[in-house]
Amino acid sequence: MSHNSFGHLFRVTTFGESHGPALGAVVDGCPPRIPLTAQEIQLFLDRRKPGQSRFTTQRREADEVKIISGVFEDESGRQVTTGTPIALMIENTDQRSKDYGEIARKYRPGHADYVYDAKYGVRDYRGGGRSSARETAARVAAGAVARKVLTGVAIRGALVQIGPHKIDRARFDWDEVEKNPFFCPDKDAAARWADYLDDIRKAGSSIGAVIELEAVGVPVGWGAPIYGKLDSELASALMSINAVKGVEIGAGFAAAELTGEDNADEMRQGQDGSPTFLSNHAGGVLGGISTGQPIIARFAVKPTSSILTPRRTIDNKGAETEIVTKGRHDPCVGIRAVPVGEAMMACVLADQFLRHRGQVG
What we know:
Layout: E1 5-6, E2 11-16, E3 22-28, H1 38-48, E4 65-69, E5 71-73, E6 79-81, E7 86-91, H2 113-120, H3 136-149, E8 154-162, E9 165-166, H4 187-202, E10 209-216, H5 230-239, E11 244-249, H6 260-263, E12 267-269, E13 275-277, E14 285-286, E15 289-290, E16 295-301, E17 311-314, E18 320-323, H7 337-360
Antiparallel strand pairs: 1-2, 2-3, 3-7, 4-7, 5-6, 8-9, 8-10, 10-16, 11-16, 12-13, 14-15, 17-18
Helix pairs in contact: 1-3, 1-7, 3-7, 5-7
């Protein structure tokens, strides 16, 4: 199985399975002399880890990261990057593989079971193996390293829709995101979502969600035409996250409803001599190159495929049957996708920053 790496100059390779002994990432290309400790990485992993509310899987994982290589103490005693590959490991400690014994030969509708079996001839049915969202813990760890590379860039994400229920944009408040279990920027919407998701959870079902990301502080000029576009690489990175089925930049699909006059981000000369944009329908990217405005992206996450409702399927012999997936699963995997999306945006921007620096000297 190839294609477990992404990025160019800032390159990340992840490894491990949902129910294996450990998972992790190797980050190659991180510049030297950047202060980095396991505690700094842990802050981001703690935002993603399971079992923190009744609205996520009750699998109990500490998600404690260990830095295996790539750091050393400098003259002042600080732990800094050395410029060599940074290996990060997270041990799995709360696997319950017996929960998946009944589906070892059945394919879960909506999951990667069938295609993995068809392609490789072998499938790790324990939690989905490599196709499990558990793999995203490694991405979050790598994203924490990427943030250290991005001096002056702030990245944040929020859940803006669960099922058909959207936030009220007039109530959008970034300060609310860390005050509720949904990463929701609308206090009133978060309260409504709690009741809605309780019903979904008690029914043994699941629901999808939409996450919005913002990066502030990216200067003009990152990215390149034609095949190194910042927005195309960001879209690719976000689409690589488990269960993501759609990505949009800026106005996204809503741009199809706008006229040319409405969609154009008009410009005026700012007092500092730089252009000032009067809107940001482009999401901070034009022609694949950053404009200096906030970079805005959204991605849609489908409902978790592992549910208690019986579904029609076939087994690996082609016999028709039904399947019920037991075990511990997120009723809305989109909740914990917020820090994952932030991490992927950070990795893309770190890579683009290093490539830009190499061009301009």
